[in-house]
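Appendix B.2, paired examples.
Example (i):
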Amino acid sequence: MRPFAASALAAGLLLLAGCGNERVSSGSLFDVPEGKATRALSYPQAGLKVTVPKEFDVKAATPPQLFRASLNAAFISSFAYRRAEQLPKTREDLVAARRRLVDAAKKRDKTFRLKSDKLTKVDGAPAIELLGDQTIFKGRLRLRSLHVYRGNGEYVVELVAPVAAFARLDRASFPTIRRTLDVTGEVKKPKKAAKKPKKRPDPKKKEPGPEEPAPSTGD
């Protein structure tokens, strides 16, 4: 099995490294009411549906990323990777995939520290959940990353926030994310941008002819 799972978390860590120019801030900014207003997101092309708190500002993204939903220095994001190889099914497969994810995270960012991990199921599909910390702009961020494997897709949903704010935000949002995450396992190829049609010449407009020779001076 190729080390496909490693790329997903590495992509998430790359986003963390560029998550903003401001220093991360803490606790009181992330007052998300638990179990309150939510927003349902649907991405048929990737075969994913999920619900996030309405307080997050959701922006569309370029595949394989589906969206990035921000709340101050915190964000929720999701990816859908189209895979040709066999995805993890057995416990042994998941253990190997988990190891690759952790190794990729540590290789991508030397400050990354794994706090916990577990093999689980989400929407009836095999899944891996990781929790870890890393330092960005001298601030400590915490990441919960959920990887779900079904059909031809590796689906990733992650929550990132300053450590001081993470626990409350995690309780208020991630249980709903896990419960509502629905994946079909059918990740389609991104559509190519349509080519601009060529301009047709206007038949009424006279095309310029060859340049006329300069008149003779008679010399």
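Example (ii):
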Amino acid sequence: MINKEKCLSEIKLDNKTNEPIVILTKYGEIIEKQLKWLCEKYEYIKIPTYVIMPDHIHFIIKIFRDLKYESTKKVNPLAELMGALKSTSSKFIHFEGKENFTWQRNYFHNIIRSESMYNKIVYYIRQNPYNWMYWFKKC
């Protein structure tokens, strides 16, 4: 998001487990719904892990490039998939009353080339709420 407004979720400490939990706002729920929609619309992708932070999201998107599939249907590039996610979620968030919601222009991506790299990125995504709690408590 451009203005880094913390409108997508809230991260709280669970009193029972002492673990951070992510509580989605209605805007975060829209993004979660659109992540699922993306996987339904484009059957050649999967999103195995994600986290919706208060002012940004992290996720892994797997694009399955089967030569047999590619010969019959177009496999959209990552930029088009991200555009679909951003435009549809923005539209629904605006409908919910957050008219000034905007995504940052670009996105950061890595091509995962090994199982080891995949595991490190999954760990990073899952640790994000912990890191947020650590830095939030320090401020």
